[in-house]
# Entry
Amino acid sequence: MSLTMLAPAKINLTLSVGDRRADGYHELRSVMMAVDLCDRLTLRPRDAKGITLRCDDPSLPSGPENLVWRAVEAIAGAAGCGPNVEIELTKRIPAGAGLGGGSSDAAATLRGLNELGGLGLGTDELTPLAAGLGSDVPFFLHAPVARITGRGEHVEPLDWRFDGAVALWTPAIHVSTAAVYARHRPTDRPLARNESWLTGPRLDARTLSERLYNDLEPAAIAVDGRLGELRGRLAEIAGRPIRLSGSGSAMFGLFDTPAEVECVLTEASGRLGLPGRCVRIGPSPDGATGHVAQG
Ligand code: C5P
# Structure
């Protein structure tokens, strides 16, 4: 028996960053949305004790430094059983891009092992395990759209849905999340800002784009100036604001239709030599939408 899980990437539609807390983390408030660019994990129980992790991207660790491995240990510890599992990880989400790939893989591992082992843990029990693995992990237990607060451990699922299309670029620039947070300078803007677009009448994608913000952008651009340059050129081509996701380097723009996204992608690829992709809102993690396949 095996279980195959899709682990979607996320983008931060809004990201407010508050003060640095005593534990070194920053207070956050962010509306996050999963998109349908997904890693795939296949989980199989093993007869022998221990964890085997195979990943098709040789640049990623396949031992305890991988968040998937730590997720297995965390849930095995909580359930009081041995971590006897074989995992095959197929990566599609670029690492170090602010798209939460490793975090999503970890959340999919928690959900998958919970199901495969018949552990019966609820989201309330999985959330602290997820939070212990990383700030972005709890969100992926609730995607596709949720508001996160605290350092990311409080997740409030939202009914809001984006039915347009997203242009997503992942420049080959790696920025360290820790380095970006270290460059972040506090502002006097409140954490909670105008989120009326979540509840008001549906906005067209260009107007919605003007409501989005990311407090980490100045720090990310201070870490690598090419991000500012690219964001500016893409915004010119797209005719609307382009936002970084999390600490970057991924950037995105919102459009009403996939055809508009394709035009902008072609233009950006021709003028800047930067390929991108068209993505839509991602799968829900509850398995009910057919994104969990059992074999
Ligand atoms: O939790 P995660 O491992 O994703 O965080 C990576 C780094 O980002 C942390 O070590 C910390 O420097 C920074 N961070 C932060 N405040 C947060 C989330 C992350 O300062 N709320």
Observations:
- Residues 101-116 form the longest helix (16 residues).
- The CA atoms of residues 283 and 289 lie 7 Å apart.
